[in-house]
Design goal:
heterodimer; A: 117 residues; mainly beta; seven-stranded mixed beta sheet; four-stranded antiparallel beta sheet; B: 113 residues; six-stranded mixed beta sheet; five-stranded antiparallel beta sheet; 58% strand; globular
C-alpha cells in the first residue's frame, strides 16, 4: 500500500510554544489529507480536512486559529498547534487519500505523540 | 445517527487460537467498510476494504465478512500470533459528497503466550 509519513514521531514542548507536525504522502499525490487526534484508549477523532491549495475544513468544536493547517503541495500537509497547552497533549494522526485507488483509499501516517508540559 | 459499534471492547486469547470481532453499523448511505489494525503508538494499517456487493474478503490470516442487509461485519483472525496484539478498528465510509469515515471505538486484542 501507499506510504504516509509524519514528522516528528514525538515531541515534548513547553506550554505556550507552537509545534508543527508534517504529513507527507511518499509515493502518491494526495489532493486531500485529514488530521485526527486520538486520546488513550479512544478512537480517532477527525479534526479537519485539508485540501491542496485551499483552506482546510474544520470539524465542529475544533479551533481553526489554534490548529493551523497548511496543504501547500500535493504531498505535504502541516498541522501547527499554536500556543500549546497541556490539554493539547494527544496523539495526532494524519491520513492521505490516494485518488489513484479504486475506492479512494485513505492511508494513515504513523502518528505524532505531542506532550505539552 | 451514523454510528459504528464494535464488540467486544477487549479480548484476551491464547496464541494459536482463533477469534472473531464484531462490528455493527448504522451509517447511511453506505459506501464501504474497512478494518484497520492499530498497534499501540502507531497509525492504523488497512486490513480489508469491502463494498456493498462483497460478502467476504481475506488478507492472510484475517478474514472479514459483511452482511449489508443486517449492517454487520466481522473480522476473523486465524491461528493468532503474539504480533496480532493490537486494536482493531471498524470504519465505515459514507457515500456522500464529503465521504467521511465513521470510526468504531475498536476492540483491543491481547494474544497471550
Amino acid at each position: 500500500g501507499a506510504v504516509v509519513s509524519q514528522h516528528p514521531s514525538r515531541v515534548i514542548c513547553k506550554s505556550g510554544t507552537s509545534v508543527k507536525i508534517e504529513c507527507r504522502s511518499l509515493d502518491f499525490q494526495a489532493t486531500t489529507m485529514f488530521w485526527y487526534r486520538q486520546f488513550p484508549k479512544k478512537s480517532l477523532m477527525l479534526m479537519a480536512t485539508s485540501n491542496e491549495g485551499s483552506k482546510a475544513t474544520y470539524e465542529q468544536g475544533v479551533e481553526k486559529d489554534k490548529f493551523l493547517i497548511n496543504h501547500a503541495s500535493l504531498t505535504l500537509s502541516t498541522l501547527t498547534v499554536t500556543s500549546a497547552h497541556p490539554e493539547d497533549s494527544s496523539f495526532y494522526i494524519c491520513s492521505a487519500r490516494d485518488p489513484g485507488t479504486s475506492l479512494h483509499e485513505q492511508f494513515f501516517g504513523p502518528g505524532t505523540r505531542l506532550t505539552v508540559l | 445517527k451514523n454510528q459504528v459499534e464494535q464488540s467486544p471492547q477487549s479480548l484476551i486469547i491464547l496464541e494459536g487460537k482463533n477469534c472473531t470481532l464484531q462490528c455493527n453499523y448504522t451509517v447511511s448511505p453506505f459506501s464501504n467498510l474497512r478494518w484497520y489494525k492499530q498497534d499501540t503508538g502507531r497509525g492504523p494499517v488497512s486490513l480489508t476494504i469491502m463494498t456493498f456487493s462483497e460478502n467476504t474478503k481475506s488478507n492472510g490470516r484475517y478474514t472479514a465478512t459483511l452482511d449489508a442487509d443486517t449492517k454487520q461485519s466481522s473480522l476473523h483472525i486465524t491461528a493468532s500470533q503474539l504480533s496480532d496484539s493490537a486494536s482493531y478498528i471498524c470504519v465505515v465510509r459514507r457515500n456522500t459528497g464529503f465521504q467521511k469515515l465513521v470510526f468504531g471505538t475498536g476492540t483491543r486484542l491481547l494474544v497471550s503466550p
